[in-house]
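Pair request: fold both.
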Amino acid sequence: MLAERSAIPLDFRGYRVLVAGASRGIGRSIALGFAEAGATVSICARGETALEQTRQDIVAHDVAAHAQRCDLADPAAIAAWVADAASALGGIDVLVNNASGYGFGDDDEAWLADFNVDLMAAVRASRAALPHLARSSHGSILHTSSIAALRPRPGGPSYAAMKAALSHYTMSQAQALAAQRIRVNAIAPGSIEFADGLWDRCRQEDPARYAAVLGKIPFGRFGKPEEIAHAALFLASPWAGWITGQTLVVDGGQMLNG
């Protein structure tokens, strides 16, 4: 949950926001952040129970909400969600591509999972949303990349490579869409901890690794999903009206220590 509404400096009343991969963690916090700031929100994810809970939490902010189950590795499902969301909300102003295939291995299955969800889901959702974004007076696309995209790493080469491709796509897409006044940016989170997320499970199952990663974060703690949501709201807002093609690192200084 974000801070009290009176403390939020951004007003998204009248905005129609789509968040892919929004049933938990970062995506959920981004969706709730936009709702708390007054936007109507559509969300999608594979898990129906968590998706419905998030929809209810969005509605609790007195805004309209749309939720649809969607396998983001499925091109037809993405097209259907975007079309249904645009119909339900009356258009699209902001698209947030947040999902990940979390293919941390080096076999074909891991590479394809990350290719289809981390990269191609963003490409496909953007393509489907573009006609609606082009009609918006404040069209914006946000991608969730990762600090894993910025340096070589011994584990999860497929995840890192596809996040790097997503950051590069952010620049190319921003250049291509600038004439239509559609801004495109990405956020590269550091290690974010939330209930039943990667680092929460690591804390319980591999405390040595958890401690090693924690020791590299200058702020002395893992990040919170809400802190990524804050960055997303800023980048989608008029305050960032001349920012496009950028990947914003939000990591508590984690990258400073390699």
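--- second member of the pair ---
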Amino acid sequence: MAEFFGFILVPLGYVMRFAYSITNNYMLAILLFSLLMELLMVPLAIKQQKNQIKQAMLAPKVAAITKKYAGRTDQATKQKQQQEIMQMYQEEHFNPAGGCLPLIIQLPIIMMLYGVIRKPLTYISRLATEDITALSQHFGQKAVDEIGLVGQIRDNMSELVTKFPSLEGAIIPQTKVGPFDLSLTPAIQFDPFNWLMLIPVITFVVMIVTQKIMQRYNYQSPEAAEAQNKISTKIMMWTMPLLSVFIEFQMPAAIGVYWIFRSILQMVEKIIIAKIFPLPKFTEEDYKKAEKEAGKEIKQKSSGQFVRSLHHIDDEEYLERHKEELKELEEAKAEEDKKPGLLKKFGISKEAVKTETKTETEVTESSEAPAAIKNDEKTTYVNKKKKKK
């Protein structure tokens, strides 16, 4: 990772070194470094917020489409509903996956920040990789843990300088905060009480609280809100904080401090951006208006001819959409014998009306019709109806 992202890790290392030169304390340097990096990622956070605003503004239209298919749970209906929603998104020039792009970009950045934090000897002390490996072997460590080495180097500096000349004049970070040494790994210990074990506990609480608060400022579609109420989603919400606690009992306490700072900074950033770019709020009237507009758009797109869809799921929609026209046709049919030629003003023959009425009766009264009739199944379906009669 260091080799692949070296062109980015090196400048980030200079930022970390600068943060330590100002604070002269590794914990405060982590705080300043996290703050500077979070400010650099503000444009990505703003882009994500604007994407959520756009999605929230389209919520009434999504609700109108969803309501049109309410009560239908067959797969064909769900697919048709999803197709209409995606078509509406395309017409509105909205990409529902656009909000994922900032997250995808942030992920490698966060990994690189984590890499800089856990390597103070590389990016603050500026020691060569060979010297760091040799120091790790000197203290009997199988794997190189740079934060863990810092404390041991400071305690044995006078002896190590003769064996490792590169340490002379090098900046060895101060990892102690009062009586606590953040280069040590938290352990569950009560006699004497190990105060460092509180850091994983604080991390767990902070992560849970920040997740809850940030959810209030994120747009959630009805589907997402419903999913959050499921047990599986709630388990996932608790899984990451619990996993963090487990990891922090395996690594130096400085890592836990970094996670605490980062969670708090992200929450504050989210609240500030949400206040500057608030999500739109809609009333019941807004949703009703969206339903009417959706109905008008459907009617405008109609060709004006009474062509029933071959999908059985469209029957109720068809009848609702053309109820006024169908009513006029029924009245015209009843008056045809009295006033010949009345149907001509509709451009429809007697045979067409009979066929339309017959098809409507067959489909609406049938309790054995399938959930969806594909175009290539029309002939088979009609023949089956004739045999039954």
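Observation on the second member. The longest strand covers residues 176-177.
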